[in-house]
Amino acid sequence: MKAHRLVPIALVLVACGDSRPVTLEDASPPDARAVDAPPASDLAAAVDGALLPDLPLARDAIVGCTTNADCLGSEYCHLDSGCLVTGAKMGTCKARPLNCPEYYSPTCGCDGKTYGNPCDAHGAGTNVAYAGTCQSCDDIDTAYQAAVTKAKKCCAMCNTIQCTLKVKTEIACPCTTYVEQSNQAAVQEMSQLEAKWIAAGCVASGCPPMPCPQVGGASCGFGATEVCIDNP
Fold first, then answer.
1. How far apart (Å, rounded) are the C-alpha atoms in residues 65 and 8?
2. pLDDT-based confidence at 205, cuts 50/70/90?
3. Among 42-56, 165-179, 204-218, which range has the highest average pLDDT?
4. Which among 138, 135, 96 has a CA at the least distance from the CA of 113?
């Protein structure tokens, strides 16, 4: 005996055993919603992303971030200054600008690339390290040391106290030295270069293990060497 032959016989027996007239209500299919509707907990899970992981995040509130990975693909992690999140202050996810004004104001991005202006950098998904074309960390440190040399110029015959401004010999592996603060352009350049170093996220490496010499002050040299000379 084959299984499919039992089905019509069973149907006949049920029909014969029930003398109640068949109505349209009895013949209608069961409510599909009662069969197919998932439990409310499953719907909640879908909304939370368990079943629908590609749902976009809502932007009704400011979203904090530390890198672009914390934001949507059309956004970038905007920092108020510099390239690194410092302390408890986080960045915020902002939309990448699509149409930037066409003007040229060289800007160094935190990715080490030079952009036409800050808007172009943000459109590429990077923050602004500093204004101007990008310099490598080594170039910044070399420029700083050159500025220190310029700031050491002094006047040996001048009847004034000189060489009193304590600064770093270099940014990467600094020791202490003294310069003449009246060399304002050089001193300002040193400050700007140090800010560039920090904004670009540069770090020192390969510093010599030997300790820095002890420096107790400086005086202006005579003759051809009218520069600030450090005193032990």
1. 67
2. confident
3. 165-179
4. 135
Is pLDDT at 8 greater than 50 in this prediction? no
Please answer whether residues 141 and 116 qualify as being in contact, where contact means their C-beta atoms are separated by less than 8 angstroms. no
Average pLDDT over residues 105-109: 94
Mean pLDDT to the nearest integer, 157-175 = 93
pTM for this predicted structure: 0.63
* Residue 176, strand partner residues: 168
Domain boundaries along the sequence of the chain: 64-131, 137-203+211-231
The class (CATH top level) of 64-131 is alpha beta
Question: In this predicted model, which residue has the larger pLDDT, 174 or 19?
Answer: 174
